[in-house]
Amino acid sequence: MLYAVFMPSAPPPFPKPTQPSEDPLTAPRLLEVGMGPAEPGLRADAARNRARLLEAAALLIAEHGVAGVTMEAVAAAAGVGKGTVFRRFGDRTGLLTALLDHTARRLQADFLGGPPPLGPGAPPAERLRAFGVAVLYRAAEQLDLQLAAQPEAERRFSHPSVQALHTHVVMLLRQIHPDADCDLLARPLLACLDPALISHLTRQCGMPMERLEAGWNDLVDRIARTETPA
């Protein structure tokens, strides 16, 4: 399964604000990846302005690549003042992180409530294999954006999107090895899916994605002491 966010033509529209689920206790909780801690919710007009800025940034990426996305360029493309962009996203990293929100939500929805093996219903080792493959290909398809959006070391591992992936891997590991230190074990597993490592292996070492996928599955099998289904 692939998770492309930008296509060669115009980028897809960003999702509009949705109404709360009728059953908030059972509905999967999706992260507001692009919102800062001071933005628990947005008014309808603010949400529209935010979507307008993100669409302008997406068009700049489609036309000029990630390097073409600056706060000034986004402001000019959206027809607003530069201060508006800074107030909404904080800095360039915040803006680029918000651009990843769409596929982050899709991935979360898939592993929280989608069909197996990525979603519930498959054995935990199969779900862990499918999870890693999905994250690998999502990172590969958005590699420049993923690299540019990585926050500094002080907040990289505490970012909500990273925490969501970590929590999911811990949950699967606890089903496989209940007595293991799954919180710590999840961290080297997720390190194998780091965009910077994927960039190094594919671009500098020339490894095909098929090898990274096979390596991930082999690693999961060794941790789970299982064999990959034929």
- Determine the number of helices (DSSP H or I, runs of at least 4 residues): 12
Care to count the β-strands? 0
Share of residues in helices: 55-70%
Low-confidence stretches: 1-40
Rg over CA atoms: 18 Å
Overall geometry comes to elongated
Strand content: under 5%
**What would you call the structural class?**
mainly alpha
What is the distance, rounded to the nearest whole angstrom, between the alpha carbons of the first and last residues?
Answer: 18 Å
Q: Tell me about the biggest sheet?
A: none
Short descriptors:
12 helices, 230 residues, single chain, disordered N terminus, mainly alpha
What can you tell me about this protein's structure?
About 60% of the residues lie in helices and about 0% in strands. The chain contains twelve helices and no strands. Helix 2 (about 70-80) crosses helix 3 (about 80-90) and helix 4 (about 90-100) packs antiparallel against helix 7. It is elongated. The model is unreliable at about 1-40 (pLDDT under 50).
Topology, please?
Blueprint: H1 44-64, H2 71-78, H3 82-89, H4 92-99, H5 101-113, H6 124-141, H7 143-149, H8 153-156, H9 160-176, H10 182-191, H11 195-204, H12 209-224
Gist?
With 230 residues, the protein is mostly helical. 61% of the residues lie in helices and 0% in strands. The protein has helices spanning 44-64, 71-78, 82-89, 92-99, 101-113, 124-141, 143-149, 153-156, 160-176, 182-191, 195-204, 209-224.
